[in-house]
Structure formats: structure tokens, C-alpha cells
Write a structure and sequence with these properties.
The protein is α+β, with helices and mostly antiparallel strands. The chain folds into 2 domains: 41 residues; 118 residues, Tick-borne Encephalitis virus Glycoprotein, domain 1 (Sandwich). Helix content is 25%, strand content 36%. Strands 1-3-4-5-6 form a 5-stranded mixed β-sheet, with no helix packed on it. The longest helix has 39 residues. The radius of gyration is 29 Å and the shape is elongated.
Length: 175
Amino acid sequence: MKKLRFLIESAAHRTIFKQRKMAYIVCLTAMVAILSLAACLPQSNEINAKLGEEFSLMPGQSASVMGEPLAIRFLEVVNDSRCPTGVTCIWEGQVTCLVEIIYADSQNRMTLTQPGSGQGRADFEEYSIEFQVQPYPEAGKQIAKQDYRLQLVIDNKSALNGGIHKKYVNFGSLG
């Protein structure tokens, strides 16, 4: 009888051990899965920028311009034909980026084209956009899409011209 009771208790302990072992494996697997997913999530993908100050975006990253109804997202480099350093070229080439601009709740896509090693400039609504794409190509080296950076300075066109911006002018009657 003692032997039978020992066998039953041993079987019960083995069952409990197997259940605990299975619960441990399930918990460990769940923790690994959660940590893996967290590592894959993009880090802070939006930055805050100020008018007239330089900021940099990587592909997929966006910036909101503080105090303005304007945000810009660097989507991708569409074409990079700039003449690499260490090479003699007939033409300096150019680099073209695709950006998405959200202005006053409307979404717009725009290409920004920078000539060779110079700085690019574009206008959008009442804003002036100066930009430069980095890195500059080097002979024999390929630039991975995720390594590009779009350096930008966004400003009010009126501030650059010394003009008065329309939102500061009141055309009320004098009386």
C-alpha cells in the first residue's frame, strides 16, 4: 500500500513539475517576444523644429515646425547622381528627395532637388526651404538608403525679404 501511495504521489509531483515547467517556458517565450517587438519599434520619429534653425531628418522621420501649421516628413532619396569625390565628371549631378508636407491639415508631396555639392532651395506657400542632402558620395562607396540625412532650414519668406507678414497686418479703419 505504501508503494502504491508513493507511486501516486510521484506521478502527481511529476505532473505538477511538468505544468510548472510548461508555464515557465510560456512566460519566457512571451517575454522574449515582447522584448523583440519593442526593439523593432521606431524610436521617436518626430522632432520639433524652429523657424530659421537647422535640423536634420533621416528617411521616414518628420518634423513639426513649432508655432506654425507646418510639418515635413523625409520620405526617401529618389535619385542621387552627384559626382563622387575623387572622380572627374563632366556634370556635377544632383540629388532629389521626396518629402511630404502637411500644411494647415492638407497633405502635399514635393520633390526637393539639390544641384551637385551646393545647397538646394525651394518655396512652399509662405515658407522658404533651404536644404542639403548628406552624406556626399565618395568614389567606390555605395550610400545605403537609411544613411541619408536631409538637413533643412525652414523660414517665412516675408522674414527673409524684410517684408511684413500678412498675419501681423490689420487693415481696420482709422476713426
